[in-house]
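---------- Forwarded message ----------

FYI, see the Acetylornithine aminotransferase record below. Original note from H. follows.
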Amino acid sequence: MSEHFSVERGLFDDVMVPNYSPSAVIPVRGQGSRVWDQQDNEYIDFAGGIAVSSLGHCHPALVSALKDQGEKIWHVSNLLTNEPALRLAKKLVDSTFAEKVYFCNSGAEANEAALKLARRWALEVHGEHKSQIIAFKQGFHGRTFFTVTVGGQTAYSDGFGPKPGNITHAEYNNLESLKALISDNTCAVMIEPLQGEGGVVPADAEFIKGVRELCDQHNALLIFDEVQTGFGRLGEFYAYMGLGVTPDILTSAKGLGGGFPIGAMLTKTNIAKHLTVGTHGSTYGGNPLACAVAEAVFDIVNTETVLADINKKSQLFIDGLNAINAKYNVFTEIRGKGLLIGAELGQQYQGKAVAFLNAAMAEGLLVLVAGASVIRFAPSLVIPDEDIALGLVRFEKAIANFTQQ
């Protein structure tokens, strides 16, 4: 079939819905923290598929898990369970606050499940009055209509008709703004321990403790969206573990599957029991292929060596970015945690994050943005130190070129 037409960037415009605007670069293979395009140009990957490729590309343990499971069974309906799903759930329960796990295919689906569970719990335990959901401005929780409305960026939720109701937004890292909104009618507060899409903004320790206390005072569930921050990304297995705050519900995806689509919602038995048979479901949730791959990711990431290394690698990034900034003075702040790092552009470069991303790509480096004025880095958690060093050399070249222009 492929002989009859060439697979190039132009084909995207012919056959794909125009909700993305991808680069001309089409990656065709990857190894570790490097990828190669159709012309065999090499790129160092500081983007990680938006914090997804937690063990880089084609990690042998993940390839092996996928091949092994691929020879066994691919799919069963949820009238049946399967071994990889049960093994993964057991490992997640044993290593977190949670007692029960629900599997789905993405972060948005995990968040959708968390929000539906919170509403159902509140209705059954407290009554219809308790339905308010509070989230935070600049937050991001997915693209389903429920999750995008809970997300705090109206640009993503406007223009699709009437939105789900009784959702309101406080200011991140501002406890007073949450205090002003929360009441005994609040069923849940949903928050990212570090806002990823919203500009790589970490939560203040006191703020997040205050959020937990307010939820307790008002009998509201605390939902941690750890889709981007979880599974080692910030140097803890889940970010809540480093904050001294335990949520009631936690959502996970992205790095959980290392590139294979999977999402999970984790919670306690007394909350989980409200999703009785038939109240929620997912055709592909708990897919044996996805769970087998995620289990392989788990076995590597949830180890002292890998988790301890993440913070060392983080420091290499931060030192390197600060050294570049000392020369070129393009950033006002380098921030983040673990291997989720944001570099905020200074006044004269406001709104130009995508231009920096393109300049980096021209030098053989993949980076991300987080909003119009923040460059975001979310590489493999096991990226070799030499790839960090070389990637930063390429990044410096890109900045030199861009600032000279």
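H. also flagged this: DSSP finds 14 helices and 17 strands in the chain.
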